Amino acid sequence: FLVDAILQDAANVCEENEITFHAEAYIPEDINLSDIDIVRVFSNLITNSLEAASIVPESSDRYIEIKSFTNHNWVTTIITNSFIGELNTQENKFKTTKEDKYIHGFGLGIVTDIIEGLGGVIQIDANTKKKIFQVKISAMRKS
């Protein structure tokens, strides 16, 4: 229910900002994440996607796609979005492009800490030429 509520909110924001939105996400109840961790992970990742896609100049190029699948003891979610093709990185870490860096730019770090702290994996791929940003998280199911 939590992920469904977050995705519905994202769909509404996408509609308001002329962002194509497609989500096929199933997160089983036996995922090794608490409710608060689910909210923190998905809220941060989707907020980042919304912010990145919303500043793409052409509305026809704005999109967010979310899909998930299970494989044995793992649940994988892939969030792909358009972005302007410019990255702000420092020491191989993504940094916020917002002015107030003291209160922004913590989302990916929070997600990484949660996922890796529970034995999961996070993979980030940014293709600046194709202007595609993708975050893939894999979390274990409870045994």
In words, what does this structure look like?
The relative contact order is 0.19. The protein has a 5-stranded mixed sheet with strand order 1-2-3-7-6, covered by helices on one side. A two-stranded antiparallel sheet has the order 4-5. It is an alpha+beta fold. It has 3 helices and 7 strands; from the N terminus they run H-E-H-E-E-E-E-H-E-E. The chain has helices at residues 2-16, 35-54, 107-117; strands at residues 20-24, 63-71, 74-82, 89-90, 93-94, 121-127, 132-140. Helix 1 (2-16) runs parallel beside helix 2. The two termini are 22 Å apart. It is globular, with a radius of gyration of 15 Å. Helices cover 32% and strands 30% of the residues. Strand 4 (89-90) and strand 5 form a beta hairpin. The longest helix is centred in the first third of the chain and has 20 residues, at 35-54.
